[in-house]
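Risk register update: the risk that structure generation would not scale has been downgraded. Supporting records follow, first protein first.
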Amino acid sequence: MKKIPTLLATAAALLLTACGPATYDIDKPEESSAEMLKDLTQEEKIQFSKALQKITIKRINEEKLSLMDLVKISEDPEKMKELLRCIDGKTVEEIIKMAE
């Protein structure tokens, strides 16, 4: 009987998180990006794209990566995840604010 309240609380938490804004998922970058972009205006999509570019450039500078490093990273999904880990779980709004 004690399992029922726990199960209900877990189900409620899942429903509440599912209703929130879409977030970037480092493990599913294409799917989460598509979900994040689907309800944005064209202007918001541009802002989001520019924010991602700024954040990526900032991370490249922080890591002191060369052009050859970038080529290697782009071919290695795990290294790309590490480069973009800072946006994992963030919403479009949060990502745009990070870039400012």
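Supporting record for the second protein:
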Amino acid sequence: MVHKGKLDEAVSEVTITKISQLLSVAADETRLRILLSLYAGEKCVKEIQEIVGASQSLVSHQLIVLKKYNLVASRRDKNHVFYSLNDYHIISLIESAYEHITKE
């Protein structure tokens, strides 16, 4: 099957490295669980922790990693920090992966 998409035939080495890093970060099971928990909408660390079933320190550490790679965004509201998926690209990435593995 030939696919004519948005990618050029000659993708730069820098771009390949960045794509590889992005997919590696998202591939970690704990980080993926966090991303999936945010798929339904914005949540604070405590809510994410309850959904993921991990310690507060682990969730916080993984959120730092996800934020570093622009997969999640945060906003502060008084004493709480709320996290959400960064943009529609991340939503699309999750949906595409889900569709790929569930297709028959």
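The beta strands are 43-44, 72-77, 80-85. On this basis the risk owner (M.S.) recommends closing the item.
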